[in-house]
Specification:
heterodimer, A: OB fold (Dihydrolipoamide Acetyltransferase, E2P), three-stranded antiparallel beta sheet, 9% helix, flat, B: Peroxisomal Thiolase, Chain A, domain 1, Peroxisomal Thiolase, Chain A, domain 1, five-stranded mixed beta sheet, four-stranded mixed beta sheet, 13 helices, 14 strands, 24% strand, globular, binds zinc ion
């Protein structure tokens, strides 16, 4: 039952990749920042919705997962470079480890991330899938 | 108006299931007219399928999600018993907060019931657009006949008056209290009246609803370009079409069961989407759902020119063709059927 309020507050981020952007220097942030590290006090932060498009910056295959993810192993955990700049950590689904390459184009999908046992809430959020599983990516 | 669909990527062949139970796969396939069915991944459920279908529908309609005034999700496999799926969809498409939302349940016809509710709200001027979804990740008891057909998938429709792709000319429902199929609170798998599911249940309701709406609108089977019926197996819709006087050609386009199985609340909406993917200006469609318990919703739909101008790029066919086969042991795990372990389901 822990962290329901925290999850609830993060729903816009987790469901829709809602971050922020500094309209002074143009940098975009995910997770959202309230102060622009470039412009400091001169920064002007506003809400920004990421498109959900990106590329695989790096990835690893998890064989010894944490609690709650045991039955998904082996699964792919990637660092996704979003088209708008920020890099985020996310599962890459609907493919096998050998299908993923650094540079593969990905897009966001809506999935169950973890459930708090059989009685708790189900936490949904973004994961990513390959945009074109047959694509041979250009190297970054 | 727009529509969107979603099917999970994984498939299991009927033969693979038959092997486990010592049945002849080819014979089962032939008698049910089904080759394979969709299987949701461990992290997919009715909510995730609904969200993907709804996002596709919004993209197709090209409207602002904030203009949606109502969201209804029809399913018999809502992830929570108490806590609506519709609010998860509302948040995930960013339609919150100025709207009404609810979940519907009526076995396999909850999705078409959602369409009817949206029609009423739109027609009365209470809302500008309504979002109606039919989606399921249905379960069949291992070894039961339903295990060969129960699958997962969904479709979403945006109902409105402006810039429609097709116009619903009429809807008519036929409802009785018929206990052909049920699942009690807390039970994992449904029970059914086996042979009782045919004549007094499926056929009586589908045929009465189809005849009722045709009579009311002075239409005959030959006036329609396409027809889609609920598809619990491949045989039932074929027989219903035959009884009513529809040809195989009229039925073909919306018959998805052979390659995806019975998507329950998703079945009639998905079949209709497959027809809209192809239909041209002036085409007339008859759609008849069926939900056990029991009732049928019938719709007469006329396609207009905007359907061709604004063709849906995420076609049912693309989702049907996007597939990866799994064996029975993985299937058991994906469906969360293992006893004694709490799978993430
Ligand atoms: Zn800045």
């Amino acid at each position: 039952m822990r962290g329901i309020a925290a999850h609830w507050r993060l729903i816009p981020q987790r469901y829709n990749l809602v971050g922020t952007k500094c309209s002074n220097c143009g940098e975009k942030f995910f997770p959202p920042r309230v102060i622009c590290p470039n412009c400091r006090r001169a920064g002007d932060i506003e809400e920004f919705r990421f498109s959900g498009e990106g590329r695989v910056y790096s990835y690893t295959v998890i064989h010894v997962p944490p609690d709650g993810f045991e039955f998904q192993k082996p699964y792919i955990l990637g660092i996704i470079e979003l088209a708008e700049g920020p890099r985020i950590l996310s599962q890459i689904v609907d493919c096998k480890p050998e299908d993923v390459e650094i540079g593969s184009r990905v897009e966001k999908v809506f999935r169950k991330v973890i459930a708090d046992g059989s009685e708790g809430i189900i936490r949904y959020g973004y994961k990513f899938k390959l945009k074109d599983p047959k694509e041979k990516p250009r190297r970054l | 108006m727009g529509y969107g669909v979603y099917l999970p990527k994984y498939r299991i062949k009927v033969g693979e299931i038959a092997k486990v139970w010592g049945m002849d796969g080819e014979r089962v396939s032939k008698s049910l007219i089904i080759n394979e069915k969709t299987v949701p991944s461990l992290d997919e459920d009715t909510a995730t399928i609904s969200v993907e279908a709804a996002r596709n529908a919004l993209e197709h309609a090209g409207i602002d999600a904030k203009d949606i005034g109502a969201i209804y999700v029809g399913s018999e496999s809502h992830p929570y018993v108490v806590k609506p799926t519709a609010t998860i969809v509302a948040a995930a498409i960013d339609a919150v907060e100025d709207l009404t939302a609810a979940d519907y349940e009526f076995a396999c016809k909850a999705g078409t019931a959602a369409i009817q509710s949206c029609m009423g709200l739109v027609d009365s001027g209470m809302i500008e657009y309504g979002l109606a979804i039919g989606a399921d990740t249905s379960q069949g008891r291992p070894g039961d006949a339903l295990e060969y057909t129960a699958s997962a998938g969904g479709a979403a429709y945006i109902i409105g008056k402006k810039d429609t792709l097709a116009d619903i000319l009429d809807t008519y429902s036929y409802t009785t209290d018929t206990p052909d199929f049920w699942r009690r609170e807390g039970m994992d798998f449904p029970s059914h009246g086996a042979r009782f599911t045919g004549r007094p249940a499926y056929f009586k309701h589908v045929i009465s609803a189809a005849e009722g709406i045709m009579e009311r609108n002075d239409k005959k089977p030959e006036d329609f370009d396409y027809v889609v019926f609920h598809q619990p197996n491949g045989k039932f819709p074929l027989n219903a079409a035959k009884t009513l006087g529809f040809s195989k050609e009229q039925l073909e386009t919306g018959m998805l069961i052979p390659n995806i199985g019975n998507t329950y609340s998703g079945a009639t909406p998905l079949g209709l989407a497959a027809i809209l993917d192809k239909a041209n200006k002036g085409d007339l469609i008859l759609a008849v759902s069926y939900g056990s318990g029991a009732g049928s919703d019938a719709f007469i739909i006329e396609v207009n020119g905007r359907n061709e101008e604004k063709r849906n790029m995420k076609k049912v066919r693309d989702y049907v063709d996007r597939k990866e086969y799994i064996d029975y042991s993985l299937y058991v795990k994906y469906k969360g059927k293992l006893k004694g372990v709490v799978l993430q389901k």
